[in-house]
Amino acid sequence: SAPSREVDTLIQALNTASRRLQEQEAAIGRSLQQQEWRSRIYAAMALGEPTHTILALVVRGLEEDVPGTLAAVMVKDKEGKRLYHAAAPSLPEFYRDAVEGLVIGEGMGSCGTSAFRGQRVIVEDMHGHPYWESFREITDRAGLRACWSEPILDDQGRVLGPLPLYPRVPASPTPSQLDLLQQAANLVTILLRRQRNEEALLLASSVYQSSGEAITVTDENNRIIAVNPAFSRVTGYGPDEVIGKN
């Protein structure tokens, strides 16, 4: 009858509205969780926490945002030929050991291939995939079934390493998950750049302090703002006597 059809239509409309409301609430929850994740990372950076500590925060935050996955950060060695873990707090130790020093190249797992190409590499199911054939035993033992690997790129587009995310079941990433993966890779780029800047400053400071040559540092008005120990040995003037002088 007409009234029953109207009731059915109304029920369907209410169910649809309820589902949409639940989806919106879930999306808002994910957005808030992601904001909190980024805030924790930015706070750690502002407080000067060690880079490896903040990288672990990035990895754990990604694992929280994509349940049922394990994540890691891998970086190139100085020769640019192999990959080593910079952060992998959740991966089993035996798995980390097995892939440590992974050769960068086509077909060398998702990570070696991603670092070689400088492109995202998605393997939805490791079983039967040629990239993972030689790693089948350790991936099964670790409970890993897929790997989505995002390249970590510097400002010039050079590959610093890959950021892999390992689902525990065969899976294809959603657009929002790919966006999260890229956001995480961008954060890692910032962290690695900061680490390299700190290492460069530390090296420069070491050279400055240990150099046998007298070195002065001046501002734009040619006023001395720092001198190294060799300057004092050569000239006989201590820092307190010359800093601020022209």
Short structural description:
This protein has 246 residues and is of the alpha+beta class.
> What order do the SSEs take from the amino end to the carboxyl end, as H and E?
HHEEEHEHEHEEHEEHH
- Quickly give the structural class: alpha+beta
| Global geometry | elongated
By DSSP (H or I, 4+ residues per run), the number of helices equals 8
Number of strands: 9
Q: Helicity level, as a percent range?
A: 40-55%
Radius of gyration: 26 Å
Poorly predicted ranges:
none
Largest sheet: 4 strands, antiparallel
- Overall pLDDT level: 86
* Strand coverage percent: 15-25%
Main β-sheet, spatial strand arrangement: 1-7-6-5
Distance between the termini: 99 Å
Describe the structure.
There is one protein chain. This protein has about 250 residues and is α+β, with helices and mostly antiparallel strands. About 55% of the residues lie in helices and about 15% in strands. The strands form three sheets. A four-stranded antiparallel sheet has the order 1-7-6-5. A hairpin with a 5-residue loop joins strand 2 and strand 3. Helix 1 runs antiparallel to helix 2 and helix 2 packs antiparallel against helix 6. The longest helix is centred in the N-terminal third of the chain and has 45 residues. It is elongated and about 105 Å long.
